[in-house]
Amino acid sequence: MSFLTLANLTKFYGANCVVNDLSLRVDKGEFVSLLGPSGCGKTTTLQMVAGFAEATSGSIVLDGRDITHASANSRGLGIVFQSYALFPHMSVFDNVAFGLEMRRMPLAERRERVDEALAMVHLEPHRTSYPRELSGGQRQRVALARALVIEPPVLLLDEPLSNLDAKLREEMQFELRHIQRKVGTTTIMVTHDQTEAMSISDRVVVMQAGRVTQIDEPFRLYEQPQSRFISGFVGKANLIEGRVADTGAQAIISAGPMLFEVDGVGLLVGAAVALSLRPERIRFVAAGQGRLDGHVSARFFLGSQWLCRMDTDLGELAVVCTNGDARVPAEGERVGLQWSGDAMRVLR
After folding, report:
1. Quick one: 144 exposed, middle or buried, by C-beta within 10 A (0-12, 13-18, 19+)?
2. How many Å apart are CA 143 and CA 238, to the nearest integer?
């Protein structure tokens, strides 16, 4: 039985439906991310779980208790906001202790719990500092310690890393996951950053226009996207328009001057489909030696990788190759493009 269950959750603001019939089961100790572009309903979903927004319909059940209409302060959840929402006039220690003080915890126990929380986020030397004296990463750790010190059944994270610079954000991703695994708190995170969601989540819930489009483990989500939106939103993808020419255990897809053999389950002859091909699955070979040839129209150095844009008979294709693995063709050069038969995914 799942620890947290969202069943047919729907939210209207006036005539505008921002979350539409969302259902999700989260196991105890699981780290789940709600991923999607701005306006897709992910933050509203988190607010309904937190109790800051009233669900129009549907239910929220936590550990067997229906909390759909419970007040926010009675749910006992830990929350880290995008802005951190620290009290500027309180020290780090007092910020972290605030939730325990509101629960009237005895002073000695309160001090012990706060000390443990500060040690967990490596902020013991800053216990007497004020938020204005801390870096962005340190403020984020204070907010996390304050949310975890009350030992919540569920930790809710609303874009917790969005205010950090790129390098610190990457470091904090893995630190956040390390702390979550150590504590074992069931966690739901809202983010629009695909890399962030994919790198630290057990499962990712992709949302589009208020609806869930796919729930899956990060690797499966990336390798087996179920729609054009997911294919393009989660990582980079080449989309090749085609039509089903023949079906069977393996279907034949006609795309431009080429035919491709793909998994044909459920396809109908004549149906229009798109083929998704990840740029890193394509490799350069000598002209005339691959599946098709192309000219390098532009190339971009990304540090660990090169991104090349190719003009081909299938239209423009992107190719990503690791820096240092092989020679990268020059702009204007004609080369062959090769990929394995299982690299293409059919988007229906």
Report:
1. buried
2. 40
Say which residue the tokens 């350069």 belong to: 284
User: CATH topology of 4-228 equal to that of 236-347?
Assistant: no
How far is Cα 301 from Cα 321, in angstroms, rounded to an integer?
A: 10
Type and span of the H or E element at 75:
helix 72-75
pLDDT tens, residue by residue, 125-152: 999 999 999 988 889 889 999 999 999 9
Find the distance separating the first CA and the last CA of the chain, reported in whole Å: 33
> Tell me: the pLDDT tens digits for 297-319?
999 999 989 999 999 999 999 99
In this prediction, residues 70-86 reach a mean pLDDT of 89
Q: Helix 92-102 to helix 107-120 angle, to the nearest 10 degrees?
A: 130
Given phi > 0 = left and psi -120 to 50 = alpha, else beta, which region is 11? beta
Q: Which residues pair with 65 in a beta bridge?
A: 62
- Look up the CATH number of domain 4-228: 3.40.50.300
Grouping H, G, I as helix, E, B as strand and the rest as coil, residue 254 is strand
Sheet hosting strand 57-62, strand order edge to edge: 16-26, 4-13, 57-62, 65-66
Q: Tokens in use for 168? A: 């610190």
Judge whether 140 and 158 are in contact, CB under 8 Å. no
Global pTM reads 0.89
Domain boundaries, the chain: 4-228, 236-347
Report the candidate in 177, 179, 229, 231 with the shortest Cα–Cα distance to residue 202.
177
Task: Find, among 172, 90, 84, the residue nearest to 126 by Cα.
Answer: 90
Indicate the CATH number for domain 236-347: 2.40.50.140
